[in-house]
Amino acid sequence: MSWQNYLDEKLNVRRNTPLWRKRQVINHSNGRFLTTISGEKYLNFSGNDYLGISQHANVINAWQQGANEYGVGSGGSGHITGFTQAHAQLEQHLADWLGYDNALLFSSGYSANQGVISALLEKEDIIIADKFCHASLMEAAALSPATLWRFLHNSPDSLSQRLNKTSANKILVVTEGVFSMDGDQAPLRETALISQKHHAWLMVDDAHGIGVLGKQGRGSCDEAAIKPELLVVTFGKAFGVSGAAVLCNKPTAEFFEQYARHLIYSTSMPPAQAVALNSALNVIKQADSEREYLQQLIYTFRQGVASLPIKLLPSQTAIQPVIIGDEQLCQTLSDYLQSKGLWIKAIFPPTVPPQSARLRITLTTRHHLSDIKLLIETLHAFFSQNR
Fold it and tell me: What is this structure's pTM?
């Protein structure tokens, strides 16, 4: 089979199905609203900027000041020329805030997860990951030389059963703080205790918990009063920017500096971005009222849709999935909402489990209570027409 025939065959399998992915050009977005290139304006319920920090004046000004001082790029890997005072200050600020010896900056959460797992695991090791872990974690685990086992989602008993079946010297337990497609929270306290009992290291990806949970927004682990050996925090959600950091003790940080290829061979984030992230962290630490307001929005939404013929997952976070199941109905609902000025994208398998096509509704502090009420009313209108 030629390359062209291969591509045509794979594309034809997916074309004209709900699984066909297509990017849409956004002309402008302010967190609450987005405008497409053709001029249509929508209320945005699909973003991850939970605290609206991407639009915060202090953070925007910090990036501009950083660009004036450092330019717009780092110019190299952090091991060559790309590790500036701005990067060092951000790493120290993060480490002090989260109570670790060190923080190491990565260009994205995906590369952080890949870098950690690819550096740490060897053939005789075991990775035990929650079944619903993010693709970046599962891909890294599958590609590593270690043996990958999966435990039932958010099940300490399933994790214990897995751990009881291995005598490997190095075991890495992997989970998330808040799961990106279900919005539910891992039982981190129990997970940490079980991991410690079996002398396993715990790695927590807290992409969707950092900034919005815990004291001063310190995230899921702070809320659960645990300190995993490896904590991954990303900056594309509540921080409103992009990039990621791995929090760990000093020997582990030194190990990654020597062996984490994603850290060694990637151009580091622009120093101006690090300056902006430092400012975003200051905003997050003082955002208690914003976190309380976000909880109010979540409560209002859940109360408003409780009577609808949908499956609403038990999420108390900004991620509020509405499970439809049928893929065509899910796409029809997404199209209907868009026709009413509400931007909510449908999510289909294999991103989510089979028969669980859904709307992944996300709420942010940029939304007004009136926006949530409009969303509720529009959902009720659709289901009254499609009983």
Answer: 0.95
Report in angstroms the alpha-carbon separations of 45 from 52, 301, 321.
13, 12, 11
3-state DSSP call for residue 321? strand
Span 127-165, pLDDT tens digits? 999 999 999 999 999 999 999 999 999 999 999 999 999
- Establish whether 134 is a catalytic residue: yes
Residue 312 β-bridge partners: 322
205 is catalytic: yes
Q: How far apart are CA 115 and CA 215, in angstroms?
A: 28
Q: Active-site residue 48, yes or no?
A: yes
**For 301-355, how does the pLDDT look when each residue is reduced to its tens digit (9 = 90+)?**
999 999 998 889 999 999 999 999 888 899 999 999 999 999 999 988 888 888 8
Element (H, E) at 205: strand 201-205
Indicate left, alpha or beta for 310 from its phi (over 0: left) and psi (-120 to 50: alpha): beta
Dump pLDDT digits (tens) for 368-382.
999 999 999 999 999
How many residues are present in the chain?
A: 387
**Cβ atoms 117, 106 nearer than 8 A:** no
Active site residue 237: yes
| C-beta atoms surrounding 385 within 10 Å | 8
